[in-house]
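Run log, item B.
One chain of 314 residues. Sequence copied directly from the ordering sheet:
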Amino acid sequence: MAAEQSRTAAEIATQPACWRKAAEAAEDASGALPHPGERVAVTGCGTSWFVARSYAALREAAGQGETDAFAASEFPVGRSYDRVVAVTRSGTTSEVLGLLGEVAGRVPTTALTADPGTPVVDAADRVAVLEWADEESVVQTRFATSALALLRAGLERHGGLPAGVKTVARAAVDAERAVVQPLPEAALAAEQWTFLGRGWTYGLALEAALKMREAAGAWTEAYPAMEYRHGPIAVTGPGRVAWLLGSLPMGLAGDVERTGGTLLAESDCAATGEGALDPMADLVRVQRLAVALAESRGADPDRPRNLTRSVILG
């Protein structure tokens, strides 16, 4: 008899539909999203901070304006911005609410959240509610990627994406593949995983490593792909995986091969004739891997150790 699917796994599988809804929602949210030329800071905590990092890099690469990303607890409140965008699934995260209160009246603020009945709705000037992407799970999956999909779609509407970056519609098609295709055997059997990215996909790499730690308690690391050879490659070897989200830097494959480790990259998908997955869709595969590893270790991905759905400081 097949084991019952975890709540986290069920939510992961809904992401293609959620991304399509996010692309549609971007039209209604366009007034709340950054406009070309604005100097913007994006903030959040944990997964939301990594979403902020990915969006900031995408927006700058698209030429739509200087964009910084900060953990809410490390935000430089003395800097001048035209808009602050806060990402918070729960709408109750203490550091985010404190930051919005601190900048209130000095800079326009926008919040992306999943719950219309939480304090962030009153704390921010403008709010985009992704209620259809909310989750019961402690570990974030579909809300985070849907928030990034909404922000990506906003870039599409406000002037376009950087060269080589797919539209959200095309990314959703890739996500349909990512939720069903077999996971790499080397990744399932590994004892250690290092995630790599460049530009906007470095934020995705950070998030991939976090998902593995949260759901499975796995030994994972994340680095900019070009920095990996400046020390971190020392951890790679037989039974260990380097997983690249995005384009492969020249020479990296050979360097990983010499360590005895395994490199997983989008070129692997392209070699099958299916075409390379959008990096955000590749993150879906890592989410699935995290759940599979948790279950193989006897852990419950719906109840990760030492975690709660929102951090609320006393």
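Observations after the first pass:
- The longest strand covers residues 192-197.
- The mean pLDDT is 93.
Flagged for discussion on Thursday.
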